[in-house]
Write a structure and sequence with these properties.
The structure holds 2 protein chains of 2 kinds. Chain A is α/β, with parallel strands linked by helices. Chain A folds into 5 domains: 55 residues, no CATH class; 82 residues, Glutaredoxin; 225 residues, NADH-ubiquinone oxidoreductase 51kDa subunit (Rossmann fold); 71 residues, Ubiquitin-like (UB roll) (Roll); 84 residues, de novo design (two linked rop proteins), CATH 1.20.1440.230. Helices cover 43% and strands 12% of the residues of chain A. Chain A has 28 helices and 14 strands. In chain A, helix 15 links the parallel strand 7 and strand 8. In chain A, helix 8 packs parallel to helix 14. By secondary structure, chain B is an alpha+beta fold. Chain B has 2 domains: 71 residues, Ubiquitin-like (UB roll) (Roll); 126 residues, Alpha-Beta Plaits, CATH 3.30.70.20. In chain B, 22% of the residues lie in helices and 14% in strands. Chain B is built from 6 helices and 9 strands, in the order E-E-H-E-E-E-H-H-E-H-E-E-E-H-H. In chain B, the strands form 3 sheets. In chain B, strands 2-1-5-3-4 form a 5-stranded mixed sheet, covered by helices on one side. Chain B has a two-stranded antiparallel ribbon with strand order 6-9. In chain B, helix 2 packs antiparallel against helix 3. Chain B is globular. Chain B starts with a strand and ends in a 10-residue tail after the last helix. In chain B, 47% of the residues are buried. Classes of the chains: A alpha/beta, B alpha+beta. The interface between A and B is large, with 48 and 40 residues.
């Protein structure tokens, strides 16, 4: 009986590191997973007892996240990134190569318990793919040679931390800089500027000894004045929804609560997006500076960075930045000598769930639960982390807020368009000569971006990932802006050699894999859509399937619980409208719908009997039946 | 002035008390909105989406959307009922439902809602998931094939029984009901046959052993009256209000 065995010795260490706090359950499970390759039944029982939760609840959390396993999943867990850009760079062939060399079946742990290989959603290395994760660490630029080297390391049972560093070298590929990427700030500049926004009169009063109380009274003016600058800037959230940041901060500041929290959404899961990875690698100080300014404005003492599991390699460098800032009095108690300005940040690492990029699902995950979006209202600004007022902003939004704290709202509004202030970072990948991160003032046309990144013979661009919009060449004059083509940052380029049906099919697999399963339409609908696409791909589709896709997609759009379900059908709608021939040439019949391949169904029988003669095939009849 | 507040549902006035959701007010006023995961005794959570209505033109779940003065709610329209039919069809192909051989036939809300909405076929290819039966408990049988993931047993066990016998694991289409035992067997949990959790399943997952055909098919709850009528009889309403 597995429940009679003792938990592994490291389980208690993981529990203690996380203060046996049920809100840190995902972190506890992740640490046990990292150490033992899976979370054993005994470990689940032990963790449940230690944090005071029912065992089934703990098992349910472990079962939600892709990177957590409750059965042995191999000493080496290899996940190939399965975004369409990885596919275009040959990941499918490389995955087959890897599996056949190691005699592996997809998703099955090898007999000796050494290795398990599977596919995973986009790992955010589209500009340097194909990519994979081994035990959570990213390896870019896969080739057969690199896979051979990896296979040797696995066969020699070398632990991943001891693998040659060159395999894990990730480049930033910053191609175009503007006000954000070209900033020349020193750590602390933005906080100092925010504090200094308190009225000068108050400070002068203090220095001319009349009354220190008046000076203190003026101190709360700093947050208000900074908030006014954020509002004046017209900054809108960079995660996709585009809510006005100033209003969000103001609502949180004026909400009733005992504690306030600042959360940085670094769960950059939208396929094709990787600009947050670059910001967290090269501009971590600016991100944290922005979070600290936010804490100062709303009066928060605790913050979190929710780092997606795929960016595990950024955890240690980010911890170092946080520590350096604590040592420089830029985090912790009395930041920059300001009494009462207390703020510190913890990093939570995700465990493979795209849905946790939705802010209320992210908060659920932060609280140690399954990442299921909450019913709203109430919104996180009033009832967020532990039901307290909480700001959740994108990585890039915090960076922009730090700039505004220094230069002011008017300055920031001077960039971009009338309705979309400032600049936007784009993660450019796919068929282009120079993939990477590009910063543009809002209003740049699709065509300009294509020209800059060296894209030729372009057929389509998928802006803002699968949940965004697919643009064909008649639309390349449109502009990146909230009022035209809004985006969270993903910009995937497809040339004329690409089959847009296959692009949409890849996205349908993505949504089916990432649906949280809470509501009926998304849970079942995304799977039905994926099955329809696979049926068309296999050549068994008919006109009827195309209308089914549209009907299912409409119900998803109307009745789903959150944005995932609402947008899951976008790529299908777009490609059906703009690239319909890529669907229609796959239809085996325009009139009837063959649900399955009768001759194909005999393949197993042929294999078992060793027969492969004409009599073991239905093909002649099938050809006759088709009669055209 | 203490005027009763109201909104309109398909053109008719529906009064409500502050704090009520649209479905609560509607049922209390004798107006049926199809639903599966909503139960009058539990806090609504809005997962089945069958009760989706249009509120001033926007699609909202009637069970989680608070009633508000003057809103115009549409529910009984061709478009919305088409959506509901598809949601029911999705639930039918997601699990393994064999109504003719199911001992809950006639008492099952999924079946009753399907009849009431006029669902004539499953429409989609079945997914045929593998969901083994758990017959380990002496008094209670779990047939997961029929689970529609409404979470009522989870809510009842946690909130009323204070036991948390049930929980969810998996994600997306692999989401499934699990029980609170390392063995994964119901017999190893502290479930008692008298628990609230055993009484709330709208379909045929949680079954009492030994009484399956005490009431013959044809004389069961929804054999006698369609669910649209039964739901109104079961709905809590202010004292003195007449039953619809």
């Amino acid at each position: 009986m597995p429940n009679d065995t003792l938990p592994e010795p490291g389980v208690d260490d993981a529990l203690n590191r996380n203060r046996r706090d049920p809100a840190r359950l995902v972190q506890i499970l992740r640490e046990v997973q990292t150490q033992y390759g899976y979370i054993s039944p005994a470990a689940l029982t032990h963790i449940a007892g230690a944090v005071g939760l029912p065992r089934a609840r703990v098992e349910g959390v472990a079962g939600f996240y892709s990177f957590l396993h409750t059965r042995p999943a191999g000493r080496y867990r290899v996940l190939f990134s399965d975004n369409i850009t990885d596919r275009m760079q040959g990941s499918g062939r490389l995955f087959d190569y890897f599996c056949s060399k190691l005699w592996l079946e997809r998703g099955k742990t090898s007999e000796d318990g050494l290795i398990r290989a599977d596919l995973t959603s986009c790992t955010g290395l589209c500009d340097q793919g194909p990519a994979l994760l081994v035990n959570g660490f990213a390896i870019p630029r896969l080739t057969e040679e690199r896979l051979d080297a990896i296979i040797d390391l696995i066969r020699a049972r070398i632990p991943v931390p001891a693998w040659p560093h060159e395999h894990f070298e990730i480049t930033e590929n910053v191609r175009r800089k503007d006000i954000l990427l070209d900033h020349a700030l020193q750590p602390g500049d933005a906080i100092r500027a925010a504090i200094a926004r308190g009225p000068r009169a108050g400070l002068e009063t203090a220095s001319n000894e009349r009354s220190w109380r008046e000076a203190v009274l003026s101190a709360p003016q700093g947050p208000v004045a900074t908030l006014e600058e954020i509002k004046r800037s017209n900054l809108r959230g960079r995660g996709g929804a585009g809510f006005t940041t100033g209003l969000k901060w103001e609502a949180c500041r004026s909400a009733l609560g005992q504690m306030r929290y600042v959360v940085c959404n670094a769960d950059e899961g939208e396929p094709g997006t990787f600009k947050d990875r670059v910001l967290l690698t090269r501009y971590a100080d600016l991100v944290i500076e922005g979070m600290t300014v936010c804490a100062y404005v709303i009066g928060a003492a605790r913050g979190f960075i929710y780092l997606r599991g795929e960016y595990r390699h950024l955890l240690d460098p980010l911890e170092e930045v946080l520590e350096a800032r604590r040592n420089a009095y830029l985090l912790g108690h009395g930041i920059m000598g300001q009494p009462g300005l207390d703020f510190d940040i913890e990093i939570h690492v995700g465990a493979g769930a795209y849905i946790c990029g939705e802010e209320s699902a992210l908060i659920e995950s932060l609280e140690g639960r399954r990442g299921v979006p909450r019913n709203r209202p109430p919104y996180p600004v009033t009832h967020g982390y532990l039901q307290q007022p909480t700001i959740v902003n994108n990585v890039e939004t915090f960076c922009a807020a730090a700039l505004i704290a220094i230069h002011g709202g008017e300055w920031y509004r001077g960039f971009g368009t009338a309705k979309s202030a400032g600049t936007k970072l784009l993660s450019v990948s796919g068929d282009c000569a120079r993939p990477g991160v590009y910063e543009y003032p809002f209003g740049v046309t699709i065509r300009d971006v294509l020209e800059d990144c060296g894209a030729v013979d372009t057929q389509a661009v998928q802006v803002s990932g699968p949940s965004g919009v697919c643009l064909d060449e008649t639309e390349f004059g449109r502009r990146i802006a909230f009022e035209d083509v809004p985006t969270a940052g993903s910009f995937m380029v497809f040339n004329r050699q690409r089959d847009m049906f296959e692009v949409a099919r890849n996205f349908s697999h993505f949504f089916a894999h990432e649906s949280c399963g809470f509501c009926t339409p998304c849970r079942v609908g995304t799977t039905l859509l994926r099955n329809c696409m696979d049926k068309l791909h296999a050549g068994h589709g008919s006109q009827h399937d195309l209308t089914e896709i549209v009907d299912i997609a409409r119900v998803l759009q109307a009745t789903s619980h959150c944005g995932l379900g609402h947008t899951a059908c976008n790529p299908l709608f777009d490609t059906l409208k703009k690239f319909r021939p890529s669907y229609e040439r796959r239809l085996s019949s325009l009139a009837f719908s063959p649900a399955f391949d009768l001759d194909g169904a005999l393949a197993a029988a042929r294999q078992m009997t060793g027969r492969d003669d004409a009599g073991a095939h239905l093909q002649p009849e099938a050809a006759e039946g088709a009669g055209r | 002035m203490n005027q009763a507040q109201s909104f309109t549902l398909d053109g008719a006035d529906v009064p409500y008390r502050p704090g009520q959701t649209i479905i609560q007010a509607a049922l209390a006023a004798g107006r049926y909105i199809p639903h599966l995961c909503y139960h009058p005794e539990f806090k609504p959570h809005g997962s089945c989406k069958l009760c989706t209505v249009k509120v001033d033109g926007r699609d909202m779940a009637a069970c989680t959307t608070p009633a508000a003065p003057g809103i115009a709610v549409e529910s009984d329209t061709q478009e919305i009922n088409d959506q509901r039919r598809m949601l029911v069809q999705m639930l039918f192909v997601e699990g393994n439902h064999f109504c003719p051989s199911c001992e809950q036939s006639g008492n099952c809300m999924l079946q009753a809602v399907a009849y009431d909405l006029g669902v004539m076929s499953p429409r989609f290819s079945h997914l045929y998931p593998s969901r083994p039966v758990d017959a380990s408990h002496p008094e209670i049988l779990l047939d997961f094939d029929r689970c529609i993931l409404c979470e009522l047993c989870i809510r009842a066990s946690a909130e009323v029984d204070r036991k948390s016998v049930f929980a969810l694991s998996g994600r997306g289409i692999t989401k499934r009901l699990i029980v609170n035992a390392a063995s994964g067997r119901l017999a190893d949990t502290n479930l008692a046959a008298s628990d609230k959790a055993t009484q709330v399943c709208p379909v045929g997952v949680i079954l009492r052993k030994g009484g399956a055909f005490a009431v013959p098919i044809g004389k069961r709850k929804y054999d006698l009256k369609p669910i649209s009528a039964r739901a109104l009889e079961d709905a809590p309403r202010p004292p003195g209000a007449r039953h619809g």
